[in-house]
Amino acid sequence: MTEIEHCDTHLKSSIVRKRIICNDIESQKRRKLSQFLDNGTTNFFDDVMSNSIEKWMVLFLLPNNDDSEEIYKISLDILRDTIDCIETFTEFNRCTDFINSLNNTTIYLIISKEINEEESIILENCSSIFSIYLLNQNNLREQQWIKSCKKFKETYINIKAICDNIKQHIHLFRQNIVSINVTSQESTTKLDELDPSFMYSQLLKEILLEMPYDDNEKTNFVNFCSQKYTNNELQMKIVTEFDQQYDKTSPIWWYTRECFLYWMLNTALRTHDTDTILKMGFFLRDLHSQIELLYLQNKPYNSLVLFRGQGMSPVQFDKVNKTKGGLLSFNSAINCPFFSDIVLCNFR
């Protein structure tokens, strides 16, 4: 018996045994998952931090004048459904101190005031900053030293164009960050040759779908989300709506809505954040049940052609191309429309 087969058999028997002796649902989930994670098969996940939910933030470095307030309001209207937080600064040092205090955050910095070469180097070396946009700073853009800074983008004359660019980047990033596992046709019949990440996902899915859940699961999840999105007014409203309206709407409707639920779930699946996945267990079960029901209702037409736009590195694409007939698995729940035009529009 291989290590993975032993893990699977042990895990299934553990589930049955613990259902009998454990009445506390949360404790039951923790103990089952701990047994699985203690197995040598999943040691490579030890470095994953449980608090791995990614944050997206826009920071402004602005002059202290009336125009700054108007810029902030316009940005908030455009980005409030995409960005977790928007902050403004008028002092360079306070801005960089704030940036250095953040973890698991991707920052877009918009500058609408003069900075010097030394300050530009400091910003260029901030690992959390993804892009730096210059607003109405043509003179600054002409400086030779700023041309060598890779994070500095072109100069814009209006804030709306910058915000649209940020929204497009975040959308494509979330689309392309999906983790792909490729298994050859020969390996699909040999359990000991399967990717451990794939086996982890399959066994974890089995645990989640076989677990019993009660009404407290949703309450605990809502409390968890409320803590995560305390500073995001829009997402907090959606969390409250989820709490009050979840039973009146379908899980698929909630998943396909562009909000915290979709981002949180796919980040947790990709990073193997088991703490968050467990908290979302009730939703994953409901989502799976609805998808399964739709599949059974359309079983006579079970051969479907769907389309997916996915960014890949040349190495990854070559690997996929060489394993035709094998198994292609995704470490995220992905959306695939029926029409290629929809996919192509998203990548233009």
User: What does the radius of gyration come to?
Assistant: 23 Å
Give the structural class: alpha/beta
N/C terminus separation: 50 Å
Please work out how many helical segments DSSP would assign.
Answer: 17
Overview of the molecule:
The protein is an alpha/beta fold and 348 residues long. The chain folds into two domains: 55-176, 3-Layer(aba) Sandwich (Rossmann fold); 183-330, no CATH class. Helices cover 54% and strands 11% of the residues. It has 17 helices and seven strands. Helix 5 links the parallel strand 3 (105-111) and strand 4.
Comma- or semicolon-separated keywords:
globular, disordered N terminus, 348 residues, two-stranded antiparallel ribbon, 2 domains, 5-stranded parallel β-sheet, 54% helix, alpha/beta
Task: Please render the helix and strand layout as text.
Elements: H1 3-21, H2 25-38, E1 55-61, H3 66-79, E2 85-89, H4 92-100, E3 105-111, H5 117-124, E4 129-135, H6 138-141, H7 144-147, E5 152-156, H8 159-176, E6 180-183, H9 196-210, H10 215-228, H11 233-245, H12 251-256, H13 260-271, H14 274-279, H15 281-297, H16 314-321, E7 327-330, H17 340-346
Parallel strand pairs: 1-2, 1-3, 3-4, 4-5
Antiparallel strand pairs: 6-7
